[in-house]
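Record Contactin 3, 1032 aa.
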Amino acid sequence: MLLSWKQLVLLSFIGCLGGELLLHGPVFVSEPSDSMVPVGAEDKRVTFNCEARGNPSPQYRWQLNGSDINLAVESRYELNGGDLVVINPHRDRDSGSYQCFATNPLGTIVSREAKLQFAYLENFKTRMRSAVSVREGQGVVLLCGPPPHAGELSYAWIFNEYPSFVEEDGRRFISQETGHLYVAKVEPSDVGNYTCVVTSVVTAARVLGSPTPLMLRADGVMGEYEPKIEVQFPETLPAAKGSTVRLECFALGNPVPRITWRRSDGRPFPSKINLRKFGGVLEIPGFEQEDAGSYECLAENSRGRNVARGRLTYYGKPHWVQLIGDVRRVEESLRWDCRPRKPSPPTVLRTGALALEERIQLENGALSIVNLSVADAGMFQCVAENKHGLAYSSAELPGAGTSAPDFSATPMKKLVRAQVGSVVGLDCRPRAAPRAVCSWKRGEVTVREDGRYWLGFLPLSPGRPAGLRHYRKTCFDENVAFRNNHVKNLLSPDAPFLTSGVAPVKLEWLMGGTYAGGFPTGSPARARQRPMLFLILTFFTVLPRYLKVSSETGFKRKEGGSSSGDLMIRNIQLKHGGKYVCVVQSAVDSVSSAADLVVRGSPGPPGNVQVEEITDTTAQVSWTEGPDNHSPITSYSVQARTPFSLGWQAARTVPEVIDGNTHTATVVELNPWVEYEFRVVASNRIGGGEPSLPSEKVRTEEAVPEVPPSEVSGGGGSRSELVITWEPVPEELQNGEGFGYVVAFRPLGVTTWIQTVVTSPDAPRYVFRNESIVPFAPYQVKVGVYNNKGEGPFSPVATVFSAEEAEPTAAPAHVWAHSLSSSEIEVSWSAIPWKLSSGHLLGYEVWYWTSGEEGSPRRVKVVAGETAARLHGLKSHLVYHAAVRAYNSAGAGPFSATVNATTKKTPPSQPPGNVVWNATDAKVFLSWEQVRAMENESEVTGYKVFYRTSGQGGLQVLSTNRTSAELRLPVQEGYVVHVRATTAGGDGASSAPVRIPRRTSSDARGSPSAIANVHPVSRYLPAVLCVAHALW
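=>
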């Protein structure tokens, strides 16, 4: 509401009589801030701060998501001064934006918005994860897939068993964006179980996913290949002013790629930029406008390189270039300029929306008022808004004809020294219109007349010397429109004192942190005294036991400066909890202050883990509560271990989620007749604690087997034999004693099964011998399981052929070998004559060796029907010998005659140099220096020009026998080009990539580093265009 002139005069008069501060509109002292609270937190109250000073004292109201909060109806809200307290906040009804309104008769101001959000982290689903099989040298990505959550997360991975965590290096990388684990090149030491660990940064809750087994395939080692970028930042990423931006980049490849960064515009990085995780993370602290732009991540190894690009854009809430301010002297007219940086013109409010009229105009954020009157007095706010938030600027327009109190003519003394018991007079005489009324504060406490104080004088009572040491006195002067203050210091230095004030009852700290400071948080325990007196500062515990200050004990006392006397405890542990006392002594007095230090940590191990009831698939497990380490236990998890598992594994339980008040659970989905151990892990808000000691080993009861053998097959053997093979059932799936196999078979087309029993649980095959077996005849076979509890299921039916009559008797003819390159030879032959009645020809074996390797030749196999094989990985310029033979299930036949071939010399190691380009319209002319082969290298027969678009398009190849080439390339695209020499021994080394940008003019030229002299290129070149089959 607005004040009439009568009300204004009346309030001024009342204020003068009462000696209180006089009229001014509300001004925020504190505004609400965003808050994120854990779901189900122990602290059931959330407070949004809002405090404004003004006279009369402001009244407060609040809005949630733009709607007023009715405090008279809503019992879950309390108003404490201006602070809004949300009691037992709930995610569904209390999430959103809160805003405070402070109002007095002079006007209303609106605070910034504050958001209330709820953080939580649910458990992973307990389903098992499939094994990942890769070749040695291959790259792999293990997915985390975090469970439902809100709030920031951090990720880690456990290798096999806690606490063995995966250490990140140039070969391994954990993305903090997705949680996935990336291994650039798998090594044999990487084989094992990997478990994703997800931690909520807000709640400190931690959950573990199911293990993912990583296994090596047995079909060879992965060769070298160029980098493949798997982790890259978005193409466009907005970043807030002042934030810390982290860009991730990681590539798979063999050899392991090296990661480097650069700006696309070529500008160097400022010194504030950090590279972390072996170059995998680019960190930009304190993001500013000049940090915006395009960034590139380069992944490179000996096989090639790849590039990922993205652009950082700058954003921020509105930033004021010019603020409105309180008017010190009121004239006949007023102009207020309110200008934010860049966004649309701001809005000006006055106790709600401003009513514009002929004498009140608003244009581009400038407010103009002519013919001012007392009725115009009030609070004004300028509001600027963009998509990232709001910004407010507040000011007060006082009544006409007033001026602020001014101390320039009658300044106060900065320091007054006095003895205890004396009477001190402190003058406060400013100039002001109307005449100002003075009031005093001691620190933040208003001084009132009470026998020791009266306005204008401050007597120091000798009967209360302990209460009077050092004062900071502030004189406040105020009239109907303005308020001013001046500060004076009063010193009575007779005894030591603690400037930190009274210590709190309790200090709480998380285990593993470092506490540095005095007893009250943010108020270090420091001593002051007259310079001529010597102080002794001592810390001890309440036992009493004096603290030994040393690096071994973790205690350190700071010396010198404003932090002198602070006690620092490094790497706080549970043992550091207790009461601490700080004692300051001088020659005349001593003072002390005490505080309790409570160290909160993850729970200790539960105790007395017992297995009370056990069946074939379940076990009843109980335990006793361990120490909670000053943070209540919220949940338990049960882990199991068998002789067949890789360490401890999370067990499936009923109930699925075990709360902190439950000390028993049923473990389900166990395997029958397996020896188990169990242990229990407790968790609280800090995180998961130490596991308990294992229970005694117990064995589940027996049951009928449920899993038949896998990989049922067979064939081969000697004449009149039927060979049946299978993969034995693992011991943990045999479900009891007396385990064996039931083998059933029958000729194809016969209805009756022939059965036999194999009593050995480790047997992988059975051979049936009978003279009546026809060579290479089809049989249907299946294999079942049994134990002392009964028979289990059979495997699916498979078709197996009986043994063939004999191995091949003829050798392949017309064998020929010729060299393809410096590392490859092709061997070919004619198929041997074969009849189906003679059996089934499986294929051919090619044996090859060099001189001196006759005793250990190498071999390759090809299937029947193929009459050629390529030998790879050979040494250059060396004679190789080869022979071929056919084979079937009965064995191998005779070798062919031996043939010879010599591998070619290696291609040149020198790449084409000085690659220069010249572009006209849609044609690009290239030239380069001739490559000259060395004596031990193959002669150059021509060149290949490889080119692709800058956007990683398909690779194309142009072959030529000259040192120049002409390409027809559209001007709308940029291209990357490189050149290789071609020889009989293969392609030579690649030139450095040449980047041809998108052409905007009809004539352009360039080279890999700088523009050079362009050699003339023939416009008519014999060339062959082909598409490359390998990615570059």
